[in-house]
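Quick review question:
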């Protein structure tokens, strides 16, 4: 239950070869949308979840405010609040999962795609708990997203106006992860597809270039021919490369089990 009185569902997966005597790294995985709705048998992500479970991760995933399936009030609870409110829900679930006796609280990592990529960048700009992070095909500067992504309609839907309106522009800046880029110190891998028209590639280029200029630990991978659906319907070789690449990046900072 959140301080606003919202009940947030979350699930944890234990590693495949679970041993109650061992402690495992925790992977926080964040959904897109922001109106997606995950569940205990999440078809769109089950392959990715099972890949990480097989590699020895405990996994936690949740439906923060703004998710679909819980009624209009819950879905609209992130109106003009894509960042702080939903992030608090996700991190509350992570806090509870981290208290499990099999979780190593010092070895936490985070990833997410689309709005989940936005949320990864937001979280690492406001919270330092994670040893490494992977932001997939995200949105990081909301004002430019209006002219670059074909999901531009989310701006008037969630902020009630357009970037040229001063009050709306101020809110978009406040809610953009790029605004807090100087606070990002967590090692970050940024991923995007070359022909992603939902959240255009300029989003990831802006975040990557900013972190490079700041001298922060950041890497960027851009997949040729890949659309916004890379993780679900992309070329098999690229889907495999992505999963192995993410896991290798995490291991550099959390070590092997």
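Suggested answer, residue by residue:
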């Amino acid at each position: 239950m959140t301080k606003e009185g919202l009940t947030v569902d979350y699930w944890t997966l234990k590693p495949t070869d679970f041993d109650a005597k061992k402690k495992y790294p925790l992977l926080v995985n964040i959904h897109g949308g922001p109106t997606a709705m995950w569940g205990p048998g999440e078809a769109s992500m089950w392959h990715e979840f099972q890949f990480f479970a097989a590699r020895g991760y405990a996994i936690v995933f949740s439906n923060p405010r703004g998710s679909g399936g819980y009624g209009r009030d819950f879905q609209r609870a992130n109106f003009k609040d894509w960042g702080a409110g939903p992030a608090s829900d996700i991190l509350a679930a992570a806090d509870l999962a981290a208290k499990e006796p099999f979780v190593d609280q010092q070895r936490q990592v985070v990833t997410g795609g689309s709005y989940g990529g936005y949320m990864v960048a937001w979280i690492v700009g406001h919270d330092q708990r994670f040893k490494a992070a992977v932001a997939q095909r995200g949105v990081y500067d909301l004002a430019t997203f209006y002219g670059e992504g074909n999901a531009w309609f989310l701006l008037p839907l969630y902020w009630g106006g357009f970037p040229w309106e001063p009050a709306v522009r101020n809110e978009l800046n406040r809610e953009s992860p790029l605004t807090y880029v100087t606070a990002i110190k967590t090692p970050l891998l940024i991923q995007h597809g070359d022909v992603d028209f939902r959240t255009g590639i300029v989003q990831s280029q802006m975040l990557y270039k900013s972190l490079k200029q700041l001298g922060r630990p950041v890497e960027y991978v851009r997949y040729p021919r890949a659309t916004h659906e890379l993780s679900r319907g992309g070329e098999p070789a690229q889907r495999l490369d992505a999963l192995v690449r993410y896991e290798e990046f995490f291991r550099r900072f959390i070590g092997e089990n």
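Why it works: The mean pLDDT is 92. Residues 90 and 200 are 25 Å apart (CA to CA).
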